[in-house]
Automatic annotation (TrEMBL):
Gene3D superfamilies: TolB, C-terminal domain (2.120.10.30). SUPFAM superfamilies: Calcium-dependent phosphotriesterase. It comes from Heterodermia speciosa. Residues 49-59 have a biased composition (Low complexity). Residues 204-407 form the SMP-30/Gluconolactonase/LRE-like region domain. This is SMP-30/Gluconolactonase/LRE-like region domain-containing protein. InterPro entries: 6-blade_b-propeller_TolB-like (IPR011042), Oryzine_lactonohydrolase (IPR052988), SGL (IPR013658). Residues 64-78 have a biased composition (Polar residues). Residues 1-78 are annotated as: Disordered.
Length: 435
């Protein structure tokens, strides 16, 4: 995207007519318009807490583990305990943490048992050998009991796909009638291929990260959850400079939208040369304010808030580059930031290493209502407590880039060609939805 403006302008949201987003012509000046909001008094105070309008409560205590430990004693075929002391001395006594699918749950600390509940399960729902339809996003929409998932890149032979190097990404919609009874369909709303990646719940629908193409701008798109899935462009530039290829997104309880913007699209050949560093942004749709909130990443990827929204977790997947090459000396790290407020505006501070993935990279990241941190890694879903201790893993063969919580301890894990359903304890719920 090019721009002739020397000043700051916004993109006016363009809505679809039911077939998808309207295209922007190359070189067009993009503007955004937003609804007016009432002004608020600013007293200049600096707080570590959110403004008084917060409706977030402190995180609930974790369930006790005594009953779970006793019930698990008769279900050892489902899990494997990891002796971390022995693992630390692997040169003398090699103990591999890997296990076959019949025992997918690895216990690094007994606190993981309380999250698993008495009868955890890992169930393969779909195995589609045709294409990697289950890759990213993962947005569960409770009102319609629907799961939305974005695919990995698929071949697109159509003539107009030259701007995406003849690649496409599709959005799959899975409507559940019971845990194992569902319908599956492709979302057919977009009239253009916006190469969707991460997503999150927003108002009555979802937000998708549009990575863009060599011609189309990248940014954030709102899609209605119900047919015909009309779409609206929320944002596609940072003060007239094009984003790289937004990757993942989360919404704060104050309505602001936070997202990461690595250069994977450029490395994979469907985005122009970057004009911005690889930042993490905060966008306030009510005012139009777009700001950088974090930098210094190799390739920022997933992000989420703690239950009280006083901590933000951001993953850096610099170990894997867009061309598929790997450098194990680079980051495969989850960073934690403290969220502070000044003059009613948030900022991130106190960056620290929260965890480093021992297998692959930590891609998508989520918190449960107890403050534990889950991330899709090279061996499945890894789980740390709020202090950064690895307490357990849910092994998935081939790894898991992303996942999302459903209701009452339910998770869906995306393993490219495969969609898994995981059932943990009923009280183990995602902090984002809390259902």
């Amino acid at each position: 995207m090019s721009s002739n403006h020397s000043n700051h302008f916004w993109l006016r949201p363009k809505t679809s007519d039911g077939n998808g987003l309207k295209s922007h012509s190359p070189g067009a000046n993009h503007k955004v318009s937003f609804s007016d909001t009432s002004s608020t008094e600013k007293d200049g105070r600096r707080n570590s807490a959110r403004p008084s309008s917060s409706n977030k409560s402190s995180q609930p205590p974790s369930p006790t583990i005594s009953n779970s430990r006793q019930q698990w004693a008769s279900s050892s075929q489902k899990f494997q305990r990891i002796n971390q002391r022995s693992e630390a001395l692997w040169q003398q006594d090699v103990i591999s943490p890997s296990a076959s699918q019949p025992r997918p749950f690895l216990i690094y600390h007994d606190s993981f048992l309380s999250l698993l509940g008495p009868s955890p399960t890992l169930q393969l729902l779909i195995n589609d050998t045709r294409a990697p339809y289950f890759h990213e996003a993962g947005v569960f929409h409770p009102p319609t009991n629907t799961l939305f998932v974005t695919s990995n890149q698929l071949e697109d032979p159509s003539p107009d796909a030259v701007t995406t190097r003849h690649k496409t990404i599709v959005v799959t919609k899975i409507e559940f009638f019971s845990p194992t009874d569902f319908t599956r369909d492709k979302v057919r709303c977009p009239e253009r291929n916006f190469m969707a990646n991460g997503g999150t719940n927003y108002k009555d629908g979802i937000i998708l990260c549009a990575q863009g193409s060599l011609r189309e701008p990248s940014g954030l798109i709102y899609m209605e959850a119900k047919r015909p899935h009309k779409t609206t462009t929320l944002l596609n530039n940072y003060h007239s400079r094009p984003f790289n290829s937004p990757n993942d997104v989360v919404v704060h309880s104050d309505g602001s939208i936070w997202f990461t913007d690595p250069i994977y699209g450029y490395e994979q050949g469907f985005r122009p040369k970057p004009q911005l560093p690889q930042f993490v942004y905060r966008f306030d749709p009510s005012t139009g304010d777009i700001r950088v909130v974090a930098d210094g990443f190799g390739r920022p990827n997933g992000l989420c808030f703690s239950p009280g929204e006083d901590v933000m977790y951001i993953t850096d997947t610099d170990l894997i580059h867009g061309d598929g090459s790997k450098d194990t000396r680079r980051a495969a790290t989850i960073y934690a930031y403290s969220v502070f407020w000044e003059n009613e505006n948030p900022y991130l501070t106190n960056r620290r290493v929260f965890a480093y993935a021992d297998t692959g990279v930590p891609d998508g990241v989520k918190c449960d209502v107890f403050g534990n941190v889950y991330s899709g890694c090279g061996d499945g879903i890894n789980v740390w407590n709020s202090g950064g201790m690895l307490i357990g893993k849910i092994q998935i063969e081939g790894g898991c880039a992303n996942f999302c919580f459903g209701r009452n301890g339910e998770l869906w894990a995306f393993a490219e060609h495969k969609l898994f359903r995981i059932k943990l304890g009923d009280d183990t719920r995602g902090a984002l939805l809390g259902v």
